[in-house]
Structure prediction request, 299 residues.
Amino acid sequence: MGRSSKDKRDIYYRHAKEEGWRARSAYKLLQLAEMFKLFEDVSKAVDLCAAPGSWSQVLSSKLRTSDSDPETSSENVKIISVDLQSMAHIPGVIQLQGDITKESTAKKVIELMSGEKAELVVCDGAPDVTGLHDMDEYIQAQLVLAALNISTHILKDGGTFVAKVFRGKDIDILCKQLDLYFKKTCLAKPRSSRTSSLEAFVVCRGFRMPTNCKPTLFNPLLNPDSVLDFASLTEEERIIVPYVSCGDLSGFDSDCSYPLNLDDKPYEYRKPVQPPINPPYEHAVKLKRANMLMEPENP
Ligand code: SAM
Prediction:
């Protein structure tokens, strides 16, 4: 397969390289932001599960009003990015490597906020998929709940929480749990997210801590001994969350292929903006280069 093949099949991948975003996911946040005015009055934001960093790049470019160097700028903007994996530096973004489901990481994020509150917390986290749908959906939901758990400590009253979810059979339960903490919860599918993918984003606005609920870093939903019985929820306790599509509907369709010479502009191949740093497959690539990787035997 030629190196331009992916450019042909994935218009958002190609545009990301042309426009300097580290990943095509940048367009998902941009399209969500356009629909829900996510960046209005936001100066502090936390990006959970941020690597390779395109959402943090978007936050950095949209929250700052001046073009001055973000490292030295006196603007009151704070962006914190967290991921399991190491991330190349983004000017003006505080980076933290850690697992968001761990209490130690949650504590570090709270510490980095130095008593200030964020108006926006986003989480584009995706665990390694196993292919077992129930298991994948469960782990994804746990990641969202871990992000919510951190948010209860750092999100301003009235703040917004955006997270990636899988639209599986238990999505209504997850939405109901989130809805307890927010005035409005909505499921959104940006145009840059493939229709064929179960991925969608919950956009929860108007954060408010439920009465008598104290934020704690203990998350009963992550505890296998939890006594919560989801099956016992009544119909009234389940809600129907609106599901909307966002992004310019006459714009590019992420499920289509486009010619390389778009709008009669000559095509030029571009390298990815930020190649992975310390990827988990690096060791295997080194062995392969040194011809030390054994080929699997024919059965
Ligand atoms: N929004 C990112 C961007 O625009 O560049 C892309 C995020 S990528 C789809 C999903 C990320 O979730 C991966 O970098 C992965 O390391 C991270 N992740 C998965 N589980 C995590 C966890 N428990 N704690 C922190 N990060 C996690």
Remarks:
- The helical segments are 5-9, 11-19, 26-36, 54-63, 103-112, 133-154, 171-179, 282-289.
- Residues 22-23, 25-26, 49-55, 83-85, 99-101, 124-127, 143 surround S-adenosylmethionine (CB under 6 Å).
